[in-house]
Design a protein that fits this description.
The complex is a heterodimer of chains A (261) and B (212). By secondary structure, chain A is mainly alpha-helical. Chain A is built from 10 helices and no strands. Chain A has 2 domains: 63 residues, no CATH class; 182 residues, no CATH class. Chain A is globular and about 70 Å long. A 6-stranded mixed beta sheet of chain B has the order 7-8-9-4-10-11, with helices on both faces. In chain B, strands 1, 2, 3, 5 and 6 form a 5-stranded antiparallel beta sheet that branches. The chains are: A mainly alpha (261), B alpha/beta (212). Chains A and B meet through helix 7 of A and helix 2 and strand 7 of B.
Chain lengths: 261, 212
C-alpha cells in the first residue's frame, strides 16, 4: 500500500471532468428536461465556490488563528440557518430564534466533542475543525429542512384533526407532540439509511478523499465512522431541540394552535 | 349559564346579547354566514372576539383556563373527524387525548344507540357513510357528559326522521338530567319542535333577535 499523497492533476487534465456534463446534457435534451440552465449554473457556482473555499482554506491552514477558525464556522452556521429559514417560510420569529440556537448549540457541542475528545486536537485547529464542521452543519441543515417540512406539512394535512382535538379540550402539547416525533423520525431516516449502506453500497466522500490523499484505509474508516456518528447526533439534536422547543411557539395564551400558511 | 355582552367578531358580525340558561336546550338559527358557528367557537374560547365578552357562570372566559373551559363547554364541530380503526378505537383514542379511560363497551354501545346507530363497537369506521360517521362522532363527544354540550349542525347528514329521534333522545338523556344543550341548525322547524329557547342571528338583522 502506497502512503504517497494523491496524484497532482494539472488544469488540462482537470478540465476533462467537465466533459461528463455533456452526457447529462444529452440525456436532459432527450428526456425534455428543461433544466440545462440549472445544470450550467450549478456547475459554475460549485466550481467558483469551491475554488474560493480552497483559496481561503489554504490561507487559513498556512496562517492558523482561532479568529479565522471561528469566523469560518460562524459563516457556515449562518449560511445553513438562512437556508433553513428560506426553505420553511412562515416560521414565526420565536421559532426562528429557537432554530438558530438549536443548530448553533448542537453543531458546536458535537464538533467540540469530536475534535477535542475523540481526535484530541485543539478546537481552533482549522485542519480538523473546519472540514468536520462543514459536514456537521451541512447534514444538520438537510435534516432540519426535512424535519420542518414534515412537521408543518403534517399539521396542515391534519387541520381537521387539530381542530377537533382542540375543541375536545386536548392540550396543544398533547396534540402537537406526535407531529414532532414523526418529523424527527423522518429527519433521521436518511442519515440512518446512509449508515446502513455505508461501506457496502458506497464509500463515503470523506473516506474516499482520505484514501486518495494517501491515508491508510484502516485510519480512514475510523474517521468515517466517527464522522457518521457525529453527523447523526448533530442532526438528531438540532431537529429535536428545534421542534421540541419550537412547537411551543405555535399556540397562544388561549391554547389555540396557530400555524401560518 | 353562558352570557354574551356586546360581542363582535371580525368587525362584520355583531351578535345580540344572549343568555343561555342551564339545563335547557337552546337552538341558534340564522342565515348562512351570519356567524352561528363562530358564536360556538367564541363560547369555547377557540376564537377571540374583536369586541365584547363571553361570561361562563358569571366569569369572563378571557381570564379562564381555556382547556378546563373546553372540557366543560364541549363543542362537536361541523367538521367530523375520526381516527382510523373501529368505533371502540375511536372512543379510546379520543379519551387518551384527555388522559382519561374510555367507557366500558356497554356504555359505548348505549351512546351509539342514543345517536341512532345500531353498530357493534368493533365495527370499522372507514366504510361508514357520512351520516354514520357523524353519529359516531356525536356519540363520542356526548359520552364525555360535559356541563354544556354544543352541536354544530348535528343533523346535516341525516334524514328528517333520524334527526328528530336523535335530538329528542339526546334531550331526554342529557338536558333532562340538568345539562345544557346548544345546537346550531339551519332547520328552523326542528328548532321550534325541540328548543326551550331560540336565538336568531343574521347579518341582515343588526344585533339579531332573541326569542324565548
Amino acid at each position: 500500500m502506497s502512503s504517497q499523497g494523491a496524484v497532482q492533476i494539472n488544469l488540462i487534465q482537470f478540465a476533462l471532468i467537465y466533459l461528463l456534463l455533456i452526457i447529462i446534457l444529452i440525456i436532459m435534451k432527450k428526456c425534455h428536461i428543461h433544466q440545462t440552465k440549472l445544470l450550467a449554473v450549478a456547475s459554475m457556482r460549485m466550481t467558483v465556490q469551491l475554488i474560493l473555499a480552497g483559496l481561503i482554506l489554504t490561507y487559513i491552514l498556512n496562517h492558523p488563528h482561532p479568529l479565522f477558525t471561528v469566523s469560518y464556522i460562524a459563516a457556515m452556521l449562518i449560511f445553513s440557518v438562512v437556508r433553513v429559514y428560506r426553505k420553511s417560510p412562515g416560521l414565526n420569529p420565536r421559532f426562528k430564534r429557537i432554530i438558530f440556537i438549536s443548530m448553533s448549540f448542537s453543531g458546536i457541542a458535537v464538533l467540540a466533542y469530536f475534535v477535542c475528545a475523540v481526535i484530541g486536537k485543539n478546537f481552533f485547529d482549522p485542519q480538523y475543525t473546519i472540514p468536520i464542521s462543514g459536514m456537521v452543519f451541512g447534514n444538520a441543515m438537510t435534516g432540519m429542512n426535512l424535519g420542518l417540512k414534515t412537521f408543518f406539512d403534517s399539521i396542515k394535512d391534519n387541520r381537521d384533526k387539530v381542530k377537533v382535538l382542540t375543541n375536545l379540550g386536548a392540550t396543544p402539547q398533547k396534540i402537537l407532540l406526535p407531529f414532532v416525533n414523526n418529523a424527527l423520525e423522518t429527519a433521521l431516516l436518511p442519515t440512518l439509511n446512509n449508515m446502513v449502506g455505508m461501506g457496502i453500497i458506497a464509500l463515503p466522500g470523506m473516506m474516499t478523499g482520505q484514501i486518495l490523499s494517501g491515508t491508510p484505509p484502516t485510519t480512514a474508516i475510523l474517521y468515517q465512522i466517527a464522522v457518521m456518528i457525529a453527523i447523526c447526533t448533530a442532526v438528531c439534536l438540532s431537529v429535536f431541540c428545534s421542534l421540541y422547543f419550537g412547537y411551543q411557539t405555535l399556540y397562544d395564551d388561549q391554547n389555540c394552535i396557530i400555524v401560518q400558511e | 349559564m353562558i352570557e354574551t355582552k356586546g360581542l363582535r367578531f371580525l368587525e362584520s358580525i355583531e351578535y345580540p346579547d344572549v343568555a343561555i340558561a342551564d339545563g335547557q336546550t337552546t337552538f341558534i338559527v340564522g342565515e348562512s354566514g351570519s356567524g352561528k358557528s363562530s358564536l360556538l367557537r367564541l363560547f369555547n374560547g377557540t376564537q377571540k372576539p374583536s369586541a365584547g365578552k363571553v361570561l361562563y357562570n358569571g366569569e369572563d372566559i378571557a381570564g379562564m383556563d381555556t382547556i378546563a373551559l373546553r372540557r366543560q363547554v364541549l363543542l362537536a364541530d361541523q367538521t367530523v373527524w375520526l381516527f382510523d380503526g373501529s368505533i371502540e378505537d375511536n372512543f379510546e383514542k379520543f379519551y387518551a387525548y384527555r388522559d382519561v379511560h374510555a367507557p366500558e363497551k356497554e356504555e359505548m354501545q348505549r351512546y351509539l344507540k342514543l345517536c341512532q346507530l345500531d353498530f357493534d363497537v368493533t365495527a370499522p369506521t372507514a366504510p361508514m357513510s357520512g351520516g354514520e360517521k357523524q353519529r359516531v362522532f356525536l356519540a363520542v363527544f356526548l359520552s364525555f357528559r360535559p356541563q354544556v354540550l354544543m352541536f354544530d349542525e348535528p343533523t346535516s347528514a341525516l334524514d328528517e326522521g333520524t334527526a328528530e329521534r336523535l335530538i329528542a333522545e339526546i334531550r331526554q338523556e342529557f338536558v333532562d338530567q340538568g345539562h345544557t344543550l346548544i345546537v346550531v341548525s339551519h332547520d328552523k322547524a326542528l328548532a321550534k319542535r325541540h328548543a326551550d329557547h331560540i336565538v336568531t342571528i343574521g347579518s341582515s338583522i343588526p344585533g339579531g333577535e332573541v326569542h324565548e
